[in-house]
Amino acid sequence: MFVLQVVIVLLLVVAAVVALVLQVRHDSTKEARNRSVAVAEAFANAPGTREALGAPDPSAVLQPRAEAARKATKVDFIVVMNTDGVRYSHPKEDRIGKKFVGTIAPALAGKTVIEEITGTIGPLVQAVVPIKADDGSVVGLVSAGITTESVGGAADQQLPLLLGTAAAALALATGGTALVSRRLLRQTHGLGPHEMTRMYEHHDAVLHSVREGVLIAGGEGTLVLANDEARRLLDLPADAEGRHVLDLGLAPDTAGLLATGRVATDEVHLVKDRLLVINQRPTDSQGGPPGAVATLRDSTELRALSGRAEAARERLNMLYDAGVAIGTSLDVTRTAEELAELAVPRFADFVTVDLFDAVLSGGQPETTASLRRTALTGIRKDAPLYPVGQRIRLVDSAPQARGLAAGQAVVEPRLGEAAGWQAQDLERSAQVVAYGIHSLIAVPLRAGNLLLGVVNFWRSEKPEPFDSDEVALAEELVARAAVSIDNARRYTREHNMAVTLQRSLLPRTLPEQDALEIAYRYLPAQEGVGGDWFDVLPLSGARVALVVGDVVGHGLHAAATMGRLRTAVHNFSALDLPPDELLALLDELVGRIDQDETAEGETAPVTGATCLYAIYDPVSRLCTIARAGHPPPALIHPDGTVEFPEVPAGPPLGLGGLPFETADLELAEGSRLVLYTDGLVEDRSRDIDVGLELLRSTLEQAGPSPEDTCRIVLDSRLPTRASDDIALIVAGTRALDGHRVAEWQVPCDPAAVGEVRASVTRQLARWDLEELTFTTELILSELVTNAIRYGGDPIHVRVLHDRTLICEVFDSSSTSPHLRYAAMTDEGGRGLFLVAQLSERWGTRYTPEGKVIWAEQPLP
């Protein structure tokens, strides 16, 4: 290719040079003829030329003129001669007077003579013209000549330009050839002509012989190439190539795919009566030209098989979705609804789930019992099927009863002809058939050997009855759902047991007392039974103890542990212990529980149990509080301001080793003390500090009574779905009127006992309690006598008129008296026995200064 281009360029250059030379020669000759004739005629007709011929010495006149004209016109010579051809002028003066060399005969006849000759100065062109007189006779001749070399200099100027242009053209041709060669080598990957020819032949043969259509569309959507199979499959016209794919009469979806050039993988398109699988990829992904190549494969033969595969895939997807969508909660009813919602409308038009009542409550079902419609889902809401909640007692001929008895699915392909099914309810059966429901699959819900109920799949839209494959799918769906429903049933049973245990352990009614106005709420968690508890415990001396506790966790273990701790608090409170000492004993108890469960291999110790214990005295209005890892109490003052008193936070119960501290609060009458568990102020979405501030703002807006306070707190602070139990106690404080309190200091003298009896008699008269005078005198006599005899100064007597009449004797001794039965021969030992017999309750409590022996009598 390169040599051919060089030869062509050289031939063109030679041809151009030859043409230039010939053209220049022709032009030079023509120019010489024209110029010589013009100069000769101009000089012959010039004024004075004819007159000079008649002068005595024509050469003297004509020679200067001829030379001047020759130089002006740039010719080689101007010769004036007579009619005999003798020269009168010549550039070379030695040739004047000699004979002119050339043809003059025609000129003498009055014509112009032009001839080309080779003279002494080289090839030239000379012209001879006559000089005529007035009468037309020739009186002389003028000849002018010029060499062709003088007028041929243009060729010398143009030839270098021509050669330079030829060289540039040769260089450009060489560079262009090199670039084309490199591009061809890159595109053909170094293949030679033979390899390229062979490849094209094979490509063309393969393209048109394969049984798969191939289409190539350009970037504008123009069809560039279509093989024979593509033309056949798409029924393309003969002139399809070069036309836009949208103009080929294809289906809109197929034409749109080919026109856009988007990537497609195994897309199925219906083209007339063929089902084509189309794959399409762009051609410019690796630097190629814009466009796309598509392949088409006829899958019409696989249509039926594809339909069956699609149905199988849909069934597999449904089974997979069943494993994900059924059993998301541990609620029996919701699980049954999930099964019905999954199957409609993908499998059946209506689905009903009927369960035994015992299953709904978590119990063991009995197959002889009636069923209850638990779930109903359909494509429409007006189907005349039994509604949800309807109790159903099956007749023996019903397909559901037969399925439960046999333990396998029963199919009724044509309900209009199923007499056994219609016998269940003749009127409703007729309504169902008239509604359009024509086919039924009844599948028993079986979990192991346990029958939980039956699931019914109803069909109305498709005219075909359920087939065997669909029966198998229904059995598989129900089998998977049965596991989830049984799990929900077991959870319901355990939850009910835990709720029952918890309710039995929590206080059902609060004891009667006048020190505090109590309102409370207990809300269990949505996810299970927890370990929160509370209690109100009347103590001696008209005092009341408030306790709130929390065991971390849910379920039976937490509820049982809570019951043990609440029982322990009851027992410890009977000892009249201060709050810090009671929490210390409770902490030791929890530690022992943990040790016992660890020894038994349990994995759920009670670490994390918290408790708050408070004792309120209505006489002194003093409230003593201690807490073990529990949130602090809130205090609402009578003016409505809210604060969280500083109560030392002890460690949670069960850690051991650290003492508990108390805080003493003097509460004004009408204050409200708010005790709660952490479920009220803490959850996964916020920190406890945020919850406490929210609780403060809520309490500031609470009503004046404890009941209003509980309601407002729960209405505003209760989470939509509590994850932990919530226990809340609001205690409004009361003060015991000073007129209901009588106190006396007793000297350490046995004679003072009489004065005490006299004083208490007068006080009981003021309170209109004369009926209790004798027993009260006897009780105080025994208690004061013991204090004087066995106790120490100071001795103090206090009588309280509350719900009962309370007698208290204080002394500085820490020795506790013991009740004993005196023998017949003993002189003493019967005092406390008499006190115990005469009083409703009696006991001893210790103070930092000593002890108090008290006794309560019911009011008449």
TrEMBL record:
Residues 331-495 form the GAF domain. InterPro entries: Bact_Sigma-Reg (IPR052016), GAF (IPR003018), GAF-like_dom_sf (IPR029016), HATPase_C_sf (IPR036890), HATPase_dom (IPR003594), PAS-like_dom_sf (IPR035965), PPM-type-like_dom_sf (IPR036457), PPM-type_phosphatase-like_dom (IPR001932). Gene3D superfamilies: 3.30.450.40, Histidine kinase-like ATPase, C-terminal domain, PAS domain, PPM-type phosphatase domain. It is found in: Cell membrane. One of its GO terms (cellular component) is plasma membrane. Transmembrane segments: none annotated. The keyword DNA repair does not apply. It comes from Streptomyces resistomycificus. GO terms for biological process: phosphorelay signal transduction system. It is a multi-pass membrane protein. The lineage of its organism: Bacteria, Bacillati, Actinomycetota, Actinomycetes, Kitasatosporales. Residues 513-733 form the PPM-type phosphatase domain. GO terms for molecular function: ATP binding; kinase activity; phosphatase activity. Signal peptide: none annotated. It comes from the Bacteria. Keywords: ATP-binding, Cell membrane, Hydrolase, Kinase, Membrane, Nucleotide-binding, Phosphoprotein, Transferase, Transmembrane, Transmembrane helix, Two-component regulatory system. CDD domains: HATPase_RsbW-like. This is Histidine kinase.
